[in-house]
């Protein structure tokens, strides 16, 4: 069928300019400086006076209350938070590719190289996660304390002792290695097939990609939930939610979609990828809109079950976030709900909005920031409690991880043509029209 | 159709191919003929643009139906649990909207879905007792029909027939309702 859109040349290399490299390096430099300033302020005890005022409010009933708080806890909690957030942002690229292969979708081929480039950041995040666990695991994770499992110890905790089969250091570390290993290996296969397809053509690589994509979905179906328990839920060791795996997956997924959309729009505005038309953008906008609502659905389902049941061991989770620790987590809690539901819901509702670059960019930024706060709200109360806050150390750590992510994304994009030239669905995607 | 005018006389061009009918729409319009509607067995990309149809208002209708469901659910739950017979269950406030979010959500979806079914029936002239106007029965199978309302065109019938034939119509029939 004749297309309304003229198709420009398909040979297009992404150029990672010296200017962008310089900017990213400056970003990382500012990040390091901010972290250093924040660390200095924390180490020298600035702001500790409010800590005592808060402690008087009786936040001591908080289950994860660590015996000896060190200022480095907040540093490592931030590393952990960003590592988990960007692990999700990276692995969703693979998730997106896999389900598009499984569905034999054609429309997404036009910008497939972007989700394809995202998981290259995974090994770094795996290292950050393992390093943080080995250095600061004892401070961040209550369940790593050996006394909890010792019946003679005053610290003995029968509930946590009952979770010993899952929450013990060798199995935990083994799981983390397995997650990153499996995700990276399967992505590496798909990436290799995709690059070889560019060279040799044919449908053989496509068929193989479907198989490996399905394998990844099977793996991710289990590991997305278990990794959510390991990375986030195990911080609040007593507490558990049956919605948590879905909840974290929803959060990661919509973040990844927002990053894909933002990258597509940005590259298009810079003159790349002119074959991406308004229909692609509208579909990406729909994806962000739909999965923002999905996230809200899961978020609310988790909240409402706990609200209805009103069991103290479950409601403590929300009490900590609403009123615990002097109420410092109330603002991020509401920011999360606003930026992840209200904002994209209203902004992305109409057809015209999903076809307008600037609105897509604003909505994507809202979602990206909102889901940072989602993980912030999940991780911080259990790790640093009343010592949490939002200062130079948080901003700096975001800058370091985000600039690293963009660096990894851009350097992957330079390694291949911006459109998979020999993909069997190429014609379909170039004429995508809805 | 509800917009059949006095004469109710139509010329119906029958086409065999979706590409041909899409191009024919442009040709016929360029020849100065007003097209009443094109009937196809499956959706054709770009046909609504070629016909110059205004943007659909289904989204607005869906929003309003959904909003009516939301308001109904809010009113229902507030009247029953908050005003008429307040009850304290599980230590919650007697009227807490959080508890009723599932009700509000479901009624929003239900009103929207039922409303859109009704909209579909009305806008397509369908219904239990309505006899649908068929320009050509074969458009439900493999043919594409372009209907020209003779009462709304100043060009003569034979000229329009020539234009249709020239644009690729396999046959041109007269349909009187």
UniProtKB/TrEMBL annotation, chain A:
Assigned keywords, A-Z: Membrane, Transmembrane, Transmembrane helix
Where would you find the membrane-spanning parts of this chain?
Answer: 24-43, 79-99, 120-141, 172-190, 210-232, 244-267, 287-308, 328-349, 356-373, 393-410
Q: Which domain of life is it from?
A: Bacteria
* Statement: the UniProt record of this protein carries the keyword Transmembrane helix: yes
Give the protein's recorded name.
Quinol:cytochrome c oxidoreductase quinone-binding subunit 2
Classification from the root reads: Bacteria, Pseudomonadati, Bacteroidota, Cytophagia, Cytophagales
TrEMBL record, chain B:
Q: Which UniProt keywords apply?
A: Membrane, Transmembrane, Transmembrane helix
Q: Mind telling me which residue stretches traverse the membrane in this protein? A: 58-79, 99-122
Q: InterPro entries of this UniProt entry? A: ActD
Identify the domain of life: Bacteria
**Keyword Transmembrane helix annotated:** yes
* Xref: Pfam families: ActD
Entry protein name: Quinol:cytochrome c oxidoreductase membrane protein
- What organism is recorded for this protein? Spirosoma endophyticum
């Amino acid at each position: 069928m004749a297309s309304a859109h003229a198709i420009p040349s398909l040979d297009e290399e992404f150029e990672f300019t010296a200017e962008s490299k310089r900017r990213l390096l400056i970003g990382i430099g500012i990040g390091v400086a901010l972290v250093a300033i924040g660390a200095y302020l924390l180490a020298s005890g600035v702001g500790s006076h409010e800590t005592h005022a808060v402690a008087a409010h009786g936040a001591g009933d908080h289950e994860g209350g660590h015996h000896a708080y060190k200022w480095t806890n907040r540093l490592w909690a931030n590393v952990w938070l960003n590592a988990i957030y960007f692990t999700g942002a990276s692995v969703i690229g693979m998730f997106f590719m896999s389900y598009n292969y499984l569905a034999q979708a054609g429309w997404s081929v036009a910008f497939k190289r972007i989700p394809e480039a995202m998981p290259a950041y995974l090994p770094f995040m795996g290292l950050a996660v393992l390093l943080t666990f080995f250095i600061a695991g004892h401070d961040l994770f209550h369940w790593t304390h050996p006394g909890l499992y010792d019946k003679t110890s005053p610290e003995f905790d029968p509930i946590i002792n009952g979770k010993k089969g899952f929450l013990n250091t060798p199995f935990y570390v083994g799981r983390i290695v397995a997650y990153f290993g499996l995700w990276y290996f399967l992505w590496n296969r798909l990436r290799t097939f995709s690059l070889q397809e560019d060279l040799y053509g044919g449908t053989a690589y496509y068929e193989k990609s479907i198989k490996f994509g399905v394998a990844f979905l099977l793996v991710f179906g289990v590991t997305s939930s278990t990794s959510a328990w390991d990375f986030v839920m195990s911080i609040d060791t007593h507490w558990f939610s049956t919605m948590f795996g879905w909840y974290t997956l929803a959060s990661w997924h919509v973040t990844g979609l927002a990053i894909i959309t933002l990258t597509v729009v940005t590259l298009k505005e810079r003159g790349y990828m002119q074959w991406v038309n308004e229909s692609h953008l509208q579909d990406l906008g729909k994806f962000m809109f739909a999965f923002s609502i999905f996230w809200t659905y899961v978020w609310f389902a988790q909240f409402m079950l706990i609200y209805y049941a009103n069991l103290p061991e479950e409601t403590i989770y929300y009490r900590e976030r609403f009123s615990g620790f002097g109420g410092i987590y109330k603002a991020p809690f509401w920011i999360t709900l606003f930026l992840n539901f209200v904002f994209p819901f209203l902004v992305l509702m109409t057809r015209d909005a999903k076809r307008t670059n600037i609105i897509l960019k604003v909505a994507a930024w809202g979602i990206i920031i909102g889901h940072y706060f989602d993980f912030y709200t999940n991780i911080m109360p259990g790790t640093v409690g009343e010592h949490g806050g939002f200062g130079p150390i948080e901003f700096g750590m975001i800058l370091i991880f985000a600039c690293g992510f963009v660096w990894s994304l851009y350097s992957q994009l330079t390694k291949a043509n911006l459109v998979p030239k020999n993909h069997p669905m190429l014609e379909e995607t170039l004429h995508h029209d809805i | 159709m509800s917009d059949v005018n006095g004469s109710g006389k139509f010329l119906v061009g029958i086409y065999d191919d979706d590409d041909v009918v899409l191009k024919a729409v442009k040709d016929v319009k360029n020849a100065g003929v007003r097209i009443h509607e094109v009937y196809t067995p499956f959706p054709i990309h770009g046909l609504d643009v070629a016909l110059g149809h205004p943007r659909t208002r289904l989204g607005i209708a869906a929003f309003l139906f959904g909003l009516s469901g939301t308001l109904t659910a809010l009113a229902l739950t507030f009247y029953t649990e908050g005003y008429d017979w307040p009850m304290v269950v599980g230590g919650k406030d007697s009227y807490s909207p959080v508890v009723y979010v599932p009700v509000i959500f479901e009624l929003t979806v239900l009103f929207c879905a039922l409303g859109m079914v009704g909209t579909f029936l009305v806008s397509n002239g369908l219904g239990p007792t309505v006899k649908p106007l068929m320009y050509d029965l074969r458009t439900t199978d493999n043919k594409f029909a372009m209907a020209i309302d003779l009462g709304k065109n100043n060009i003569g019938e034979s000229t329009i027939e020539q234009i249709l034939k020239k644009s690729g119509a396999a046959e041109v029939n007269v349909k009187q309702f």
